[in-house]
Design brief:
- It is a single chain.
- This protein has helices at 11-22, 29-48, 51-68, 78-95, 118-137, 140-151, 156-163, 167-184, 187-196.
- It is mainly α.
- Helix 2 (29-48) runs parallel beside helix 4, helix 4 (78-95) crosses helix 7 (156-163) and helix 7 packs across helix 8.
- The protein is globular and about 50 Å long.
Amino acid sequence: MYDKGRMELDSLQETEIIRRIKSGDSNAYAVLVDAYKAPLFALALRMTGNLHEAEDLVQDAFLRAFDKLHSFSGRTSFYSWLYTICLNIIRDHLRCGKLRKQDTAYDIAAQPSGSPGPGSELLQQEQKLWLEKALLTLPVKHREVLILRFFQELSFRDTAAICGISENAAKKRVYQALEKLQAVFPSELWDKEEDVQ
């Protein structure tokens, strides 16, 4: 379920790019934007369910990160620092209740996975649509850990750092979120899977 599009930057590359930006080369910031815009957009879209809101929130996150880059110490990874900024912006947005009507036409979960038959592919699309809708019913604190851990495929350590909680708390929250998700995700979708195969 990894959100495609992230250009992998190692810590040495990030450090060099950040050094250049802090030295006045603001054009180097575009490399960081290119590296992280897709996963941040996927995070914002899954958190809000709205394409336009997600675009605006990610743009705000990149602007805020650029303004605060002088304060980035390097004690954490840049992506963790950037994700935290983006997640805080999303949380503030959701807390203020400014969310527009969710988009039902988006399909951010659609990713090729082998070559399933037509019945199986239809089932997968139906499951993904229900999963996206079910995620939006969860409380923000549960939604964010599931997205970071399973869709963004971040470790519990990184998930905890981004959410500002301990690693044990992140594990507990993921477990609670999965229980809540199971309660709202229609079990008949899973029963259909056996009929298709």
